[in-house]
Amino acid sequence: MRASFVFSEVITGLRRNITMTIAMILTTAISLGLLGGGLLIVRLIDNTEKLYYDKVEVSVFLTNDVSASDGQCQQQICSGLRQSLDNNAIVEDVVYQNRDEAYARFKEIFAAQPELVKLTRPESLPASFRVKLKDPQRFDAISKEYTGKVGVLRVVDQDVLLNQLFEFFGSFRNATFAVALVQALAALLLISNTIQVSAFTRRTEVGIMRLVGATRWYTQLPFLIEAVVAGLTGAILALAGLFFAKGTFVDDVLKAPIEANIIAPLGYADVFQVSLLLFPIGAVISAITGYVTLRLYVRL
Amino acid sequence: MIRLEHVSKVYKTSTRPALDDVSVNVDKGEFVFLIGPSGSGKSTFLRLLLREEVPSKGTLVVADWNVGRLSRRRVPRLRQRIGCVFQDFRLLSNKTVAENVAFALEVIGKPRHTIKKVVPEVLELVGLEGKADRMPHELSGGEQQRVAIARAFVNRPLLLLADEPTGNLDPDTSQDIMLLLERINRTGTTVLMATHDHSIVDAMRRRVVELHLGKVVRDDARGVYGVGR
Predict the structure, then answer these.
(1) What percent of chain A has pLDDT over 70?
(2) Diameter of chain A by CA atoms?
(3) CB-based contacts of A283: which residues, under 8 Å, 6+ apart?
(4) Interface contact flag, B108 A205, Cβ < 8 Å
(5) What are the tens digits of pLDDT across the range B176-209?
(6) Which one of A24, A26, A275, B26 is most buried, counting C-beta atoms within 10 A?
(7) Residues A208, B109: C-beta atoms closer than 8 Å
(8) Could you tell me which residue ranges the FtsX extracellular domain spans (chain A) (predicted)?
């Protein structure tokens, strides 16, 4: 096979349909960029989940009378619960937080809403045990064991609250993937259309190639390479777009929640790793689209 | 070289067969005219030889290939042994004369040094030495057909199929093209030419196979165009 001949055919083909080629590359770039964006959100969710799971706690709130009468957790009910939690095999760490400490933390959290702080009295906040589990997924075991015990008001898992946050992230990711899918469909149709136009404009060459005995593979290859070149160029643009987006506005938008430790930071290494996936995806999808188009619509 | 045994071809869209129980033998090195009115089956005959179509019935052998049973993968091998010339030349307008001829070798993967050697040789054979760098639109009709013949012959085919090669040319130029085809035939290449050109057939006095409504109605060893009509 003459590589130089095949590549000169590819360049001729791409140049002949320059506007179609540009449209094909841009659409591919946008769909790959959105796909990359979706993958980055998945990565962000994973990193954030890790961040939270490291900190996630179970709160065992104590009843009002225990909270009011035993500020240092020295009486039988409170110390008995602490001992039981300390000795529990699935518990990693237990911290007692009395009513005053709970009020101090409340004031800290709601410092921005002084009216709320003014309305809330220390007596309305229960004392609690902040329990860190060895495996955050084992909340059920703790809840079952301590709910209803004397002195226990209720057992709350922060994980439940987090799940709502992750559900929000998840729906954002799904929306991005949905747009990427529609874009990908448009890109596939455009690649298919460009190949058909390309084959039509080169019908004399293709006809002669068939007549003189060029193999089907030799005849198809320039068209397939054209599609793959478009896919790879789209991937390069998508990569550039993702880096540009991170550098210009994603970092700014996420700056505050990252500093507040609400979400995990997203590094250039994350963007680079995701972008590397876009190259094989772009190339393989373009090649398959090209091949199917040639089989179905173009007589070679 | 060519053997058709009771070959029929029926297209899906037609009720009448395009070729109907045709049996013809063409020996290596023969020069054969295929004549008949439009719709008589000449084009189908040529398309079957090229394996553009598959016979509906019968056996068709070209060189040693049983064309009807040839797998799709082996069709290019058959076509590499057959050269084709058409009425409309089918040259690539964006390539020079030499590039047009070289194209036929490039696309079958011939090495560059072979192409460099044989292209000037075949251009000389067809009388186009010195015009290698011209573009097709700079040539006369006759010269364009010479380029097409050079392209068809450059890979030294066993069989040359010519479909109305003089259809677009004036009588003098047609005469030159026929002399060229004769020259190629003298090198041992079998030539099968479909034509409507009475004067050429009458002047050359070669074998004539006449088709009418898909049947062979005449096969004369040294025939003329209009005998018995």
Answers:
(1) 96
(2) 100
(3) A228, A231, A232, A235
(4) no
(5) 999 999 999 999 999 999 998 889 999 989 999 9
(6) A24
(7) no
(8) 56-155
A260 touches chain B (CB under 8 A): no
Q: For residues B179 and B201, what is the distance between their CA atoms, to the nearest angstrom?
A: 13
> At a CB cut-off of 8 Å and minimum separation 6, what does A193 contact?
A20
What is the end-to-end Cα distance of chain B in Å, rounded? 30
Compute the distance between CA of residue B118 and CA of residue B123 in angstroms, rounded to an integer: 9
Asked whether the whole model's pTM tops 0.90, one would answer: no
Q: Does residue A246 share a domain with residue A170?
A: yes
Q: Is A5 within 8 Å of B106 when comparing Cβ atoms?
A: yes
For A236, the 3-state DSSP assignment is: helix
Domain of A44 in residue numbering reads as 3-53+163-296
Contacts of A8 in chain B (CB under 8 A): none
**Do residues A255 and A210 both lie within one domain?**
yes
- Residue B166 in contact with residue B6, Cβ under 8 Å? no
Query: What span, in angstroms and rounded, lies between the C-alpha atoms of B58 and B44?
Result: 14
ipTM field: 0.85
Both structure tokens of B155: 């890979």
Residues A220 and A288 reside in one and the same domain: yes
| Mean pLDDT of each 10-residue bin along chain B, 229 residues long | 93 89 94 93 93 93 91 91 92 93 91 93 93 95 95 94 92 93 94 92 93 92 72
Task: Note whether A285 and A204 are same-domain residues.
Answer: yes
Same domain membership, residue A279 and residue A173: yes
Q: Of A102, A131, A157, which residue is a domain's last?
A: A157
A-B contacts at Cβ under 8 angstroms? 51
Of A124, A157, A190, the residue that ends a domain is: A157
| Measured distance CA(A113)–CA(A120) in Å, rounded | 11
